[in-house]
Amino acid sequence: MEQRWSVRKTTSMPVMIYVNGSPMAACRARNVGLEGIYLEVISPMFELESRLEVEFTLPDGEEHRTYRLPGVVRHVTDGGVGVMFLSFHAKVFRILHTVLYECRAMGGAIATS
Q1: Fewer CB within 10 Å: C terminus or N terminus of the chain?
Q2: What mean pLDDT is predicted for residues 51-59?
Q3: 10 Å Cβ neighbour count for 22?
Q4: CA 17, CA 38: separation in Å to the nearest integer?
């Protein structure tokens, strides 16, 4: 049963994964929502409940800004990991909400810069 409280948006945006403040892997996100992100990793290197940080760039008006959010691994598959965000910067929440819902209404996707 689906338990998400926001839409998921298909994407292929680049993401950097950090563990204990150190970069661990560069990958791509398959989808993103207000509560989490699915990351494509070749060989899942993270176990369930692993803590990490996910860094990504989002459009913010005329600019792009990079954000790093803490998360926990909730799903592990052959193709990647599902990460639930543990906290939110208010500005990230607003930007993600705008990107997810306004782009969805227009049939667009999240930028893949």
Answers
A1: N
A2: 88
A3: 8
A4: 12
